[in-house]
User: What shape does this take?
Amino acid sequence: MSRRSGATLHGLSLVALLALSAAPVKAGELAAFADACGASGAGPLPPAHVLTALMTTAETPWSPAVIAAYSNTLTPSGDGPKLADMQDAATLRDRTANVIGLGPSTPEAGISARVAQGQSMALAMAYLGGDFRVLTILCPAPSGEEAGGESGGEVKAEPRLIRIGGGVEDLTANSLGDQGFATLGYVNDREADSEVVNARIVLGAGSFEGPRSLWTPYVSYERSTDADEELNDLAFGLNGLWRTMTGHQIGLTASYETDDDFDSRMYRAELNWELPGWQECRNQMTERQYLTCRVGFKADYAEVGDAGDKAALLTVNEYTRAGTWVRIVYGHVLANEAWAQATLDYDLMESLDGDEGDASIIRIGLNYLPAKTSRFRVGISYENGEDITSLTRSETVKIDLGFRY
Assistant: This one.
């Protein structure tokens, strides 16, 4: 949405409030945001539109002082009283607390909410005081298009016939804007002192739903050519995801892993637990920037039937591991709707029955996207550590093209 259209909608919001056109609440708390979502489009609903919807559905004739506090609340540098300070805005506080009290919600009319952890009324007061991190309303895409924006684990991912990304976690991304990219790039391998071509892709097909869960069969492939310690991973698997009412995500992956010559053979199962996130870095968004943080724990078991040419697996028969992972993404809008995006990924797995299987890897990237939900990007990244499944060691600087679907 352009800044001109955003300003227009903001102005229309104020007119609606001044006219005291209180619309009746539709069935369900989230459905009350349907009109605002229709005007704003897919993705996170701007705080101005959230407040407007809350106020116009509260069926209360707001005083000029409350209208002024509405403007102050949307202005971080404003010195005047905010909505949280208004004694005659109790109805608004209750409406906001009701929406927040839904917690990680089942979508209503395609609209979903994500909230911070805490007591509903305390979070409502924080939101009405200008801390818009504690509540985000997510609007659906029109005509079946993918919703944009960086969203958290509380939103229900919809089944799609085909998904293409860079990792298994992309199979259950909530929207196209959340997905990683399949990549093809030029790599300077500092560990092997060589220059190689690297490809990484995960293809999911035929997703289907279970009780509060989404399941996706997939094929993943990663290959680096002409390196001294070649990376050659091909996997066939099934990925499942459950979302709890408190915002936790539980993932289960079972896979058969080999190489493109089918010389190696490994069976692996992984359990992944994603936390709702921490409030200091919880999906902060404005129209010009966003910050998304994800963190979780995981455990896996693998049995190596045949190491093939994978040297790192020659001494490994099986392993049981536990570890953690962190994903941080920061985006900032550039000219002409383009976005710059910085990413930090860290994975750590430690063996529970010896030293076999220990691995850790860090990836730092800087990307250019023609649009926030673009299917293409170009980027440069630095990667250092061991591949989590094949244990192949690398330290690389990579320039790549990315694609997602």
In short: Helices lie at 3-18, 34-40, 47-56, 64-73, 90-101, 120-128.
